[in-house]
Amino acid sequence: MSTLSEQRFSPNLLLLKPLTPLLKFYDRNQRTSFTFFFPPPETKCKTGALDIVFVIDSSRSVRPYEFETMRRFMIDIIHNLDIGPNATRVGVIQYSSQVQNIFSLKSFFTRAEMEKAINSIVPLAQGTMTGLAIQYAMNVAFTVQNGARPLHRKIPRVAVIVTDGRPQDRVTEVAAQARAAGIEIYAVGVQRADMNSLRAMASPPLEEHVFLVESFDLIQQFGKQFQDKLCEYYNPQHIFPSQYENLFLSGVDMCTELDHGCQHTCVSIPSSFYCQCKPGYKLNADGKTCASKIIDACANQRHGCEHQCVNSQGTFICRCQTGYQLNQDKKTCINGYYCRCRDGFTLQEDGKTCQGTFYIWLAVAMYALILSHVAHT
């Protein structure tokens, strides 16, 4: 089943991608793309649902080949986690004299996407501001807006800090604030790391949250041990009890939980979401972006315009010919002009010509004068 590129579920519903935790469907009738989330196949590790953020030191003291081992460390752990929007979510940040978000807890839900992003990291190669990185993790990385589940859902928030040096800023106070905010901190030091700083950062009990690895060459071997600890430590009851039991979860707004990528509107449905476009636009084949659709709303001859029909953003408006104006019904037209005479002139019955009132009076007066003269002769 995992090798299928297309499977027909109904005459109009097609599976467009291989069976992975993220499945996309396209409904031909509705021209709508749906995204469903399936629990991933069984993995080596049966952790419960976690929100885990790797906080990676990429200061100048970390040599290029050493940074490569840190990449491998993260990838190896991710490959053994139960990844998914309702299982374990993963984020990665790197730090030096500044902090850079590589991807957030809501960015990716497949291992392949995460691995690609990790392999594209370019080390910052500056100082070692570990306290600044912890502050960022607390105020940004572990927020609901960036994909962390709300605290009331009691999903463990785990920060894994990997560093090779002594922090150049204070970590004790900010680490205490992060722990108080519900973040469990694992401090992993490599060769030159300062043990006191690691202990100041980590959550209690320290013997379970502080690790010192002698060299970068051993960090991959340590990663396997650390993975076992994650598997043992967290409650496995949070995972999906069967492969499809929680396919249609209710009460979760996937549009706010995930980075949906819809250009116009995201519509949340149980365990899924789909994208919609504004009027006058149609959904593209990617199921997320929208394109303007040219609709001839005047073509069906049912517009009712007396004079002219004009297309306008997927609908129509009526216009009148020169000399007419649109009625209140926005469809019929009335004569928009009328004639008016200058002072001293009167509009004639044809509604267009004018005759001066002075000449009318003069003609009447002359006629009266003539009649009077005739009468006296």
TrEMBL record:
SUPFAM superfamilies: Growth factor receptor domain, vWA-like. InterPro entries: cEGF, ECM_Assembly_Org, EGF, EGF-like_Ca-bd_dom, Growth_fac_rcpt_cys_sf, VWF_A, vWFA_dom_sf. Keywords: Coiled coil, Disulfide bond, EGF-like domain, Glycoprotein, Repeat, Secreted, Signal. One of its GO terms (molecular function) is calcium ion binding. It is found in: Secreted. One of its GO terms (cellular component) is extracellular region. Residues 51-230 form the VWFA domain. Pfam families: cEGF (PF12662), FXa_inhibition (PF14670), VWA (PF00092). It comes from the Eukaryota. PANTHER family: COLLAGEN ALPHA (PTHR24020), MATRILIN-4 (PTHR24020:SF14). This is VWFA domain-containing protein. It comes from Pseudonaja textilis (Eastern brown snake). The lineage of its organism: Eukaryota, Metazoa, Chordata, Craniata, Vertebrata.
